[in-house]
Structure formats: structure tokens, C-alpha cells
């Protein structure tokens, strides 16, 4: 059985929050570059989030659940998302390929709608941006690539999409939003229905100071 990783180590909340702020600052700084979204990018975010934080296995930061013999503790590492079983570890690598190609296609279309340095100018454009963010968030959470910390990376994807298109870095990363609408939308996303999350993100954005 793989060594489990269920919680942040005690006493490291301050370090994790500082690390997350650093990741967020990088995302904001790079927004105008219109970088292509990649799984490797999210792996860097995850490694940076847990920099200088002791984990049950060091490579749990940034490496994914799969069948790679280089990371034996992640072979057969199965997870649950709430009460639902997560994607089987053997299916994670192919699912991440689909995630990356699918998100790149969506981002390519959005880049043609919102110019560099611009922001949505209509309600339809705004909803399209948030729908893109909801898909990235929901699919990352559904795949659950990492042993832990997937929700934070999913919320980083929301902010990555938001700042790319001129919106604020509005999604709270730690702790997760306590909003029941968000929790219910996240459950729907696990079933492949991302529209409730897009609506929840619109609400969270409207509440951002």
C-alpha cells in the first residue's frame, strides 16, 4: 500500500500560505505572456506550494498518480473526492493528456476573443472566461492527479484563466471557499457538468473586493 498523504503537516500553514502567494505572484506576472497551459506548469505550482514543507514522500510534490516505476509510491495510489472514488491511478496519465489538449484548444479560442491586455467587454465574454476557468478547475479536480493538494491547484487554474483575461486573482486558495454553492458546483463538476461552477465563479467574482 502506498504511504498516505491526507493532511498538511502541523505547523506549516504559514509556509504553505507564503508559498501559494509566491505562485500567485508568478501567475499574475506572466499573465500578459499568454503562455500555453500545460500539465508541467501545474506540476511546478504544486512543487512550489509545498517547497520546504515535509511530506510523507518527497516526490509527492509535483509528481502524479500513475504507473511510473521512478515514483513507486504513486503506483496504485488511489484517492476519493468526498465520498466518490477518484479516477484510477492507471488512467491519470492519459486523462492529463486530454486535459492539456482540451484546455489548450479552449484557451486558443478565448485568446482570439479577448486581446492581450484586454478584458471581457460583454456579459457573454465574461461568462465564456469563467466557463473556461470552471472547466479547468473541474477537470483537474476530477482527474485528481496528485496524492493531495489538488483543490489548491484547481483553484490556481481558475486564477490563471482569470488574470490572463484581465480579471482579478479572485479565487481563495487556502482554505477552500466555504460557500455551499461552490461545494455543490464542485460535486457537479465531478460528474462532468461544469455550468454550475461557472455560475458559482461569477458569484465569487462579484463578491471580490
DSSP, total strands = 2
- In this structure, how is the largest beta sheet organized? 2 strands, antiparallel
Under the CATH scheme, the architecture is Orthogonal Bundle
Shape: globular
| Total number of distinct structural domains | 1
Your description of this structure?
With 209 residues, this protein is mainly α. The protein has one domain (13-207): Fido-like domain (Fic-like fold). 52% of the residues lie in helices and 2% in strands. It has 7 helices and 2 strands. A two-stranded antiparallel ribbon has the order 1-2. Strand 1 (80-81) and strand 2 form a beta hairpin. Helix 3 packs antiparallel against helix 4, helix 4 packs antiparallel against helix 5 and helix 4 (123-143) packs across helix 7. The protein is globular. The model has no long low-confidence stretch (mean pLDDT 95).
Amino acid at each position: 500500500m502506498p504511504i498516505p498523504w491526507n493532511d498538511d503537516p502541523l505547523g506549516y500553514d504559514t509556509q504553505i500560505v507564503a508559498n501559494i502567494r509566491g505562485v500567485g505572484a508568478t501567475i499574475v506576472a506572466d499573465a500578459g505572456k499568454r503562455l500555453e497551459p500545460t500539465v508541467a506548469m501545474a506540476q511546478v505550482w504544486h512543487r512550489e506550494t509545498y517547497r520546504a514543507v515535509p511530506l510523507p514522500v518527497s516526490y509527492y510534490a509535483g509528481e502524479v498518480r500513475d504507473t511510473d516505476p521512478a515514483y513507486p509510491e504513486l503506483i496504485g495510489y488511489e484517492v476519493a473526492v468526498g465520498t466518490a472514488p477518484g479516477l484510477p491511478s492507471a488512467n491519470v496519465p492519459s486523462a492529463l493528456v486530454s486535459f492539456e489538449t482540451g484546455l489548450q484548444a479552449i484557451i486558443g479560442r478565448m485568446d482570439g476573443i479577448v486581446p492581450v491586455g484586454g478584458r471581457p467587454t460583454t456579459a457573454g465574454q465574461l461568462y465564456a472566461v469563467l466557463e473556461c476557468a470552471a472547466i479547468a478547475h473541474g477537470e483537474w479536480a476530477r482527474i485528481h492527479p496528485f496524492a493531495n493538494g489538488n483543490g489548491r491547484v484547481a483553484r490556481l487554474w481558475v486564477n490563471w484563466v482569470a488574470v490572463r483575461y484581465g480579471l482579478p486573482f479572485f479565487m481563495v486558495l487556502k482554505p477552500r471557499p466555504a460557500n455551499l454553492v461552490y461545494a455543490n458546483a464542485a460535486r457537479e463538476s465531478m460528474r462532468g457538468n461544469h455550468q454550475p461552477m461557472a455560475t458559482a465563479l461569477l458569484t465569487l467574482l462579484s463578491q471580490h473586493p
